[in-house]
Specification:
Length: 69
């Protein structure tokens, strides 16, 4: 799964720390999300979409085998 969290965060001129505070998660969680090493819960994905005023699909791009068959 590809993530555009970093790009959205930069577009909104936010630091990782600021985003982590808005989402009520640790900065390490934001780092892991940006690197695609952590798949968020639906609630966290929704919070991200609300923070960036977009849809979940605008942030997370599913590729290859990850799609439900």
């Amino acid at each position: 799964m590809k993530t555009l969290i970093r790009e959205k965060r930069i577009q909104f001129d936010m630091t990782q720390e600021e985003l982590s505070q808005k989402l009520e998660v640790s900065r390490q969680t934001v780092i892991s999300l940006e690197k695609g090493k952590y798949k968020p819960s639906l609630i966290l994905a929704h919070k991200l979409a609300q923070t960036f005023n977009c849809t979940i699909e605008d942030i997370f791009i599913f590729e290859g085998d990850e799609n439900v068959k």
